[in-house]
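Technical appendix A lists one of the benchmark inputs used to test multi-chain prediction within the project. The record comprises three sequence entries:
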Amino acid sequence: MSEFLNMGGYAVYVWSSYGLAALILWLNWYLPRRQHQQLLQQNKRRHHGTGE
Amino acid sequence: MYLWFNKLGSPPHFYRIAGKWLPWLSAVFALLLITGLYGGLVYAPTDYQQGESFRIIYIHVPAAWMSLFVYVVMAFCGVVIIVWRMKLAEVVLISSAPIGASFTFLALATGSLWGKPMWGTWWVWDARLTSELILLFLYLGVIGLHSAIDDKRIASRAVAILAIVGVVNIPIIHYSVEWWNSLHQGPTVTKFDKPSIDMRMLIPLLIMALSFQIYYVIALFQSSRAELLRRERNSKWVAELSGGN
Amino acid sequence: MTPARKKRLALIGLMLAGIAVGLTFALKALDENIMFFFTPTEVAEGKAPRNKLFRLGGMVVEGSISRPGDGLTAQFDLTDSGKQVTVRYTGILPDLFREGQGIIANGEVGDDGIFVAQEVLAKHDENYMPPEVAEAMQKAKEAAAATTTN
């Protein structure tokens, strides 16, 4: 296991590549999703507010 | 065909379809990602020259491919916007830009992390690296231009032109390593003769590439849905969506 | 397609064609600057700049690596299977540096004709394979060479 983590001495380079990829891909997924939910809520409030 | 195109192009229809597809796409993506990561990190053998450091390839190459692919999609949307004035193309174009910029940045950053131990430098101004950096600026230009113009329909036409003009950079990036002497090596997988990569290394690479492709569709659907809601907040279908009457 | 759409499509086509042509000429003119390195043959033909830093690219000749003096300085020959240039470099070599490897050295040619490098970069090839396969290929190559010489 520790041999796997060590990546033949290139651990810093290999794992920071994979870590960076995970972070960036997660951000691209999470931020629009959060925005979408916020917009839905805003709309709900708006339509209920004017409707009654 | 034309009818189908028209129907998919209608915002409420696209919004619904995309929402329906998202969970399925996510499941396929998760499956491919796990397989690809296992294949790349465990199953693929060590490289004869580069040792374990070559495993960066499983992030670097799919990200670089996607950085080109997403740009071509944007340019295609640009043509559709200018010629057919289609609303959905505007949304797809601007939603693609941050995703493409991310892929480009990822390709550059992982390339740097690979170059340091192997080449002996983080960065050189060779043709491949420079043209990929220009691609990042093109993406950032599209994002910046779009946010600088308030009227989003005018903004869309402006970025459509920029996206179309920038597409000439795509063949330059691809052929840069053949046209000029560069530090970056030549193509491996897309060579006309047999790819010069071992099968056990190639298969995880293709799986990772496919998973990145599906990831793009997921991220695109996600942010297109948000963009559609923002743009069409005063339309009837959005009002119906939130259940207000 | 309506005539208006046809016109817009044609305009896009024209615009792209114009840019492509312009860019082709621009890149042609800049060719020398985009070339990342010079080959030993180009150096021998006098195409490389004199008294100025430039990059030299080639393969490290087998058996040419020596370490004169303190051991930190390495001297080796670079070839492009035509001419050869001797390179001297003091410092840490990249992990991929070895005989038969493609190398790019940044430096200038001294009065003794030796290229004094300030930086050495390794250029790896586009082949990826496990060590066993590389070894087997090497053996097959040697076997083929042995049969042709017999």
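The first helix of chain B runs from residue 2 to 8. Chain B touches chain A through 40 residues (CB under 8 Å). Comparable benchmark entries are summarised in Table A2.
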